[in-house]
Design a protein that fits this description.
Layout: H1 2-11, H2 15-46, H3 69-73, H4 75-82, E1 88-92, H5 97-123, H6 131-153, E2 159-167, E3 170-177, E4 187-191, E5 196-198, H7 211-228, H8 236-256, E6 260-265, E7 271-275, E8 279-280, H9 282-296
Antiparallel strand pairs: 1-2, 1-8, 2-3, 3-4, 5-6, 6-7
Length: about 300
């Protein structure tokens, strides 16, 4: 009722009075519309554009580098090492007591012979000899001293053991070398398979050995190793016979250098010697085969 009464009163207002009201109301409406439109444009201009979501780039694993030439050559060797959970002893040298004793005693004899004869013929001669005889004896003494040096060096740089370790995709070789002075700590060298080179093949080719000879040599080595593990008081005759045989073999090997292979390690000027009569594992043969292929190629 109130609204209806107000509407009727508004209709009853004269036209002359209502026109100014209508004009003022139109001005207010136009002002509000302009204000609203300008505010909207300002807000749109200052507002930050909405960031459209982009697809996150796929994180791909970096491509593994192609296998190097060294990995290809030692693939079988690395595979055999990966089968074991820890370090693998691929080589263990036999006892070199008799060999080193023979080398040092022969070198000492050469030095004493050369020194005594040089003193007796040149420094304080008992009988005066001619000059050419004195020079000849002096040359022999120098030659004996040089021979003693050769035998002394043959007791050095002997490899005691080689241990291979495979961890985090890398293979390392721990090479232990005997010292010339007894009872000293062994020298340790760490190298990788591609840094090793052998002077000759560790296994005798099939063409150079018959099957009977190979079986006989294998039985002989196994019997010697079995006797060496037995106490002296349990088998004194066998132990004495084995000791004499080793002494004879060591004396012969001082001159012939048989069953020795020279091992060259990158970064070292000296050549190390490995006694192939020791305990050789199949992994060492794979290592030697890979190193030999690298030298041939």
């Amino acid at each position: 009722m109130i609204l209806q009464t107000a509407f009727l009163q508004f209709r009853a207002i004269p036209r002359s009075i209502a026109c100014p009201l209508r004009r003022d109301s139109s001005i207010v409406v136009s002002w509000i519309s302009k204000r609203y439109s300008s505010g909207t444009q300002t807000a749109l201009g200052t507002a930050k554009p909405l960031s459209t979501p982009k697809n996150a780039p796929l994180r791909l694993k970096p491509a593994s580098p192609p296998p190097t030439r060294a990995d290809e050559r030692f693939r079988k060797f690395n595979f055999q090492l990966s089968q074991s959970s820890g370090p693998v002893d691929i080589f263990k040298a036999p006892s070199h007591r008799s060999y080193m004793f023979g080398a040092y005693s022969t070198a000492l004899f050469c030095y004493l012979y050369g020194g005594y004869n040089f003193y007796a013929t040149s420094v304080d001669p008992i009988v005066k000899v001619a000059k050419w005889q004195e020079y000849t004896f002096a040359g022999v003494c120098v030659l004996m001293a040089a021979m003693g040096t050769v035998f002394l060096r043959r007791g050095a740089n002997l490899i005691a053991s080689i241990t291979a370790t495979r961890s985090q995709g890398q293979t390392q070789l721990l090479i232990k070398v005997r010292r010339m002075v007894p009872f000293r700590k062994q020298r340790e060298i760490i190298a990788t398979p591609d840094q090793i080179s052998f002077s000759r093949q560790l296994v005798v080719p099939q063409a150079h050995m018959t099957e009977e000879g190979r079986v006989a040599a294998q039985k002989q080595w196994e019997s010697h190793r079995a006797i060496s593990k037995v106490s002296f008081f349990k088998a004194p005759l066998k132990k004495t016979s084995l000791a004499l045989w080793r002494l004879f073999m060591s004396s012969r090997r001082l001159f012939t250098q048989e069953h020795f292979a020279y091992v060259k390690v990158a970064g070292h000027n000296t050549e190390f010697r490995m006694d192939t009569m020791g305990e050789v594992s199949p992994e060492l043969l794979l290592l030697e085969k890979g190193a030999r292929h690298g030298v041939l190629s």
